[in-house]
Amino acid sequence: MSATPPPTARALRDALARGDRRAADVCQEALDTTAARDGALGAFTAVAVERALARAHALDAARDAGAAPGPLHGVPVAIKDNISTRGIRTTASSRILAQYVPAFDATAVARLEAAGAVILGKTNCDEFGMGSSTENSAFGPTRNPWALDRTPGGSSGGSAVAVAAGLVPVSLGSDTGGSIRQPAALCGVAGLKPSYGRVSRYGLLAYGSSLDQIGPFARTVEDAALVLGVIAGADGQDATATAEPVADYLGALTGDIQGLRIGVPRAFLADGVAPAVLAAFHTSLEVLTARGATLVDVDLPHARYAIPVYYLIATAEASSNLARYDGVRFGYRTPLEPGDTLRQMYERTRDEGFGPEVKRRIMLGTYVLSAGYYDAYYLKAQQVRTLLRQDYERAFAVADLVAMPTTPTPAFRLGEKTDDPLAMYLADIFTVSANLAGLPALSVPCGFSEDRLPIGLQLTGRMFDEATLLRTGDAYQRDTNWHTATP
Questions:
Q1: Residue 161 included in any domain
Q2: How many domains, the chain?
Q3: Whole-prediction pTM value?
Q4: Is 193 an annotated catalytic residue?
Q5: Which of 93, 155, 159, 433 is catalytic?
Q6: Active-site residue 84, yes or no?
Q7: Domain residues for 186?
Q8: Span 69-101, pLDDT tens digits
Q9: For a tag on the chain, would you pick the N or C end, based on fewer CB atoms within 10 A?
């Protein structure tokens, strides 16, 4: 792959707006690059060639007629395959939805297109967002462009790889417990999980309804800010989408972090972090303090319980959300045999339609919600979730952001953890807390391991304060060049 970083979304948009480039040419280049590279990577589950080219030609015609270009005019964008796209197959990388073509766009997708973006296609993911490696897909795994034998992370691995490999400048993913930030870190790109409610979930195929959030991948924090400004905001189709005003995220990128207080939970980072990750993390803090930030110690005493709390709450919500896939209303239905009962049809449809990890989580979630276990597991997890949120409230009394590594290790090998679910779940130890507390969190590239695998720095902010997160991440990228490295 090229050693020269591809143009950013902002640079492309500006060139297209000036008339230096044509949207159809940019789209064709993205399609050609994807056709040449994606066979080895498996980032896309569907590439909408004719639709994308028709859209790009329409944008060129509108521009020629004098229409003002939008903030993403002509920019190719990839969409995670659990986010609805009208007329493009949306499967959540599951056999049970293998032939599902939505009749509507998710709000985030509709806003991207209204801003002039060109939807190139849909990206591979762990089935229904359940996984940390993009191996739990009915369509096969996605491979990390930095080392094809390594995972790209998950569940939004295809969206991360599409940006990291230069197939598109920006993409959308979803984050329930780290599914944007973890693959962003392992693939060497920026990934933002907005605050819960900042971006409408309308059209997102639900996994954990109190945890899910749509967000952008990009090579630069500036591009992530550009995309967030387009997709954020209230939505009448989603009662959980907040009416909190949307900030000028691009305008917030001043480079000035003088006096910014960065909280560091040192006790939480004492064990289980690879030496290369810890070294890159501490070096990144030195970069930020050299720009005028100050470090303060914070304590997150309940963060060590975040993984079990997350896997009780998320699986309980998944058990309820995935009950709709029963072979009756839509999606896959097992071929019926003479004498089959309705119950047999349900059982065989779900057995054949869902993969092993989804079945595991449905069963776990059903168990923790069942009579006799609800109080002992689900209710107790919700109580600890409240304590975890209170930990962050105390941290933000003395700090503006909380910093930690995004992942405890660089990318692990494909197949390395598939037989050990607990080891796989622990890959999200630093990311799940932000979802449980509803907070925004950003991962930016901050270094490489000895064998040149990317490492990520995670910054977590106050509720709806994405502007400070993005300003800090952008300031960091002004003084580093990790984000310019390409596979």
A1: yes
A2: 1
A3: 0.97
A4: no
A5: 155
A6: no
A7: 9-255
A8: 999 999 999 999 999 999 999 999 999 999 999
A9: N
